[in-house]
Specification:
It contains six helices and four strands. With 153 residues, it is an alpha+beta fold. It has two domains: 50 residues; 97 residues, Nuclear Transport Factor 2, Chain: A. It has a four-stranded antiparallel β-sheet. Strand 3 and strand 4 form a beta hairpin. Helix 3 packs antiparallel against helix 6. It is rod-shaped. The N and C termini lie far apart (85 Å). It comes from Candidatus Sungbacteria bacterium RIFCSPHIGHO2_02_FULL_53_17. This is DUF4878 domain-containing protein. Keywords: Membrane, Transmembrane, Transmembrane helix.
Length: 153
């Protein structure tokens, strides 16, 4: 009789353990498909991309110099890489249009005569365009890799 009781208790414990394992697995699968998990995963991927981004200078002036050099060479793909990651495609297209219109040299000229103002991890380069309206190029320091990237132009 004691053997039957132990078999029954052992079976009951096994069933409870299997049930709890199944519930845990279901919760885990639900979590992986949840919008919260997907957002966390996407945020981690973006952080990884920003951390591993090799483009940009250690100073705002260096980034501007590298950007201008790429424009002088007509290397639009390289020039676009000095912008923050989420604006690179947009600026690649814009720079391509500027190149097609033959205005890269004019853009380089505008960028070479700038005055920088540094406020913490934001650098403002003030430039005067042909129509004498002041404009700004803005850079932010990427805190994940300490590189300066262009955020606005």
């Amino acid at each position: 009789m004691t053997k039957n009781v132990f078999k029954f208790l052992g079976g009951a414990v096994a069933i409870v353990a299997i049930g709890m394992g199944a519930l845990f697995a279901i919760d885990y699968i639900r979590y992986q498909k949840s919008p919260e998990y997907q957002a966390e995963k996407q945020a981690e991927e973006i952080k990884k991309e920003y951390r591993e981004d090799p483009y940009g200078g250690d100073t705002p002036e260096e980034t501007l110099k590298l950007f201008i050099e790429a424009l002088k060479k007509g290397d639009i793909d390289l020039a676009a890489k000095y912008f923050v990651l989420d604006k690179q495609e947009e600026w690649r297209a814009d720079l391509s249009q500027i190149q097609e219109k033959g205005l890269l040299d004019e853009m380089v000229g505008d960028l070479t005569s700038t005055k920088m103002t540094l406020k913490g991890e934001v650098a403002y380069f003030t430039l005067t365009r042909v129509n004498d309206l002041p404009s700004e190029l803005v850079m932010h320091k990427n805190s994940l890799n300490n590189k300066w990237k262009i955020t606005e132009l």
